[in-house]
Design goal:
367 residues
Amino acid sequence: MLTQRLGDYLQNDDKFIEDFLTIVGENPGSCDEVWFAGDYGFPPIEKHRESAAKIRQSAEKFRAAGLRVSLQISNTVGHGQYMSARDCSGLVYDGSAVEHMTGPDGSTADYCFCWNGENFRKYIVDMLKEYAKMKPYCVWIDDDLRATNHAPLQQGCFCDACIEKFNTKYGSAFNRKELVEAINFGDISWREKFVEFIRDGLYDFTYLMSKTVCDVSPDSYIGFQYCANGGYTGYGYDFIFDAMRKGSGKNPKSRPGGGAYNDHNPNEQLKKSFFISWQNSMLPDYVTEIRPEIENLPDVVYGKTPAGTCFETSIYLASGANAMSYAMVMNLFDPMQYHAKFFRDFARHRPYWERLVKANENTIQAG
């Protein structure tokens, strides 16, 4: 399965959709699925409602052309400070009761939020209900579902409510400074308890999101877009996949990745393939669809060549993937005629890629 992620500026553009479907039709096998994207940022729920309604209309055009339609939730807890460039007025305004993510030193992230916060969770639930009306094949949750790298914070969440919940759960009486001291320099059991606490909170939040989607769209799968984020919450994301499986009632899907945004230095693609192999090795057995993302960012014509994109596809499939997704048709100013040569190469390489996937399957079956 080859998937194209569509930029939110393009997914409702009639001329773009017409050109896209024409090029895909001229190159059979070059694309099987498209991913739409929910609004990036945290606008009022009414704005999400309007965007979701437009997406539903566009989705029918792709379905009528024989393409599968999925959806990316562009942000949950928030990517970082740069989200200030988008509309975040649904959560960030004077008097907002939303719970912001807090670092170990007590500093807060203006555009990232605590996954345990009830006000924040209600906003996310209301948003998901709108987008799930599209009945997507799979809902992909983006990689800000993590406890690290939320500029200007590196670790979270140490808000007052989280510290109180931690103390209640483990019978302690730490303030923020004392908790950080215990995690870093105290008995190892406190570090273990903190990892468990963070994982449990993210599990509950992920379960809530997965169940919300499938309550509205029972046939939808849930997928996780993620990077190799280190050991702050313990290695591996089995707890996220477990929550997705329980909340949706179906086996979740994996989109590993991170890095290699152009092909100026092909060694970056090899480096990323090692990250992907490591991520694949830590997946639960029930996660059987592995669909890395090839990120031709920042979406400019000098970012990545068709040859570089096809080579990258090949090495990721050789690293254990059995599907692929592309973030390349994302820019409002790139004509589809530029991308046509990518689709021609995808169609030409597809038989080779299918043999790679089959070889991997045979190797796994043989033990």
